[in-house]
Write a structure and sequence with these properties.
Blueprint: E1 12-13, H1 19-31, E2 36-39, H2 64-73, E3 76-79, H3 92-110, E4 115-117, H4 125-133, E5 138-140, H5 161-169, H6 173-188, H7 191-199
Parallel strand pairs: 1-2, 2-3, 4-5
Length: 202
């Protein structure tokens, strides 16, 4: 996994939107930087109809051909579950499917998959226990106290060099605290998508 056993940053991308291939991948190649892309298995090669956005626009997810090309170069792929549901609200059987089947399906195409990013950044002790049982070694989301609760800093279109520096260094503390509050507020608005996903499946 990029960054494993080293100090520094791990660049990750949730959801597997095709814009990663169009915009981020060329930059990563230019500077020789690897990253992890977390894929929603049910939406590979499909539009992101799972997401509810203010403008209603839908963009395609990565295709398998794009994924294979990126993997050949050195991009690492992990699970973002089968359908991007809030794991903390699922039954044991539903969670087993989202975690286990996504790992199996990705490994069938890409080889070993040892990391997962929690949809909507929602995770609790039961989710962590079941993620470990499913065979994952690294979980992205949480407060950073273990390899299955690796802390993530979200980067938004509103960020700039200064705010990015604050997120990386966690300094100055007052600005970092403000940024964490902002991330929680933005994340709060994912409730609409989570409610809609209760009503529909792929």
């Amino acid at each position: 996994m990029p960054g494993e056993g080293k100090d520094g940053l791990v660049i990750t991308f949730d959801d597997g939107d095709s814009s990663i291939y169009r915009y981020a991948f060329p930059i990563l190649k230019k500077y020789g930087v690897r990253a992890i892309v977390f894929l929603i298995v049910d939406y590979i090669g499909k539009d992101d109809s799972w997401d509810i956005t203010p403008l209603g626009g839908k963009s395609p997810h990565l295709s398998w051909d794009e994924i294979y090309e990126m993997k050949e170069w050195g991009i690492v792929f992990g699970s973002h579950t089968m359908s991007h549901r809030n794991l903390t609200k699922l039954t044991a059987a539903e969670m087993a499917y989202e975690l286990g089947e996504s790992k199996r399906a990705l490994e069938e195409q890409l080889g070993p998959v040892d990391c997962i990013s929690y949809p909507f950044n929602r995770v609790n002790s039961d989710v962590v226990r079941r993620v470990k049982q499913a065979g994952y070694e690294f979980g992205f989301g949480g407060t950073g106290e273990s390899d299955l609760l690796i802390k993530k800093e979200a980067v938004y279109i509103t960020d700039n060099i200064r705010s990015l520096s604050t997120k990386i260094s966690e300094r100055p503390r007052i600005l970092y605290g403000y940024d964490r509050i902002k991330q929680r507020i933005i994340n709060y608005f994912t409730i609409t998508t989570m409610l809609m996903k209760k009503q529909s499946k792929v």
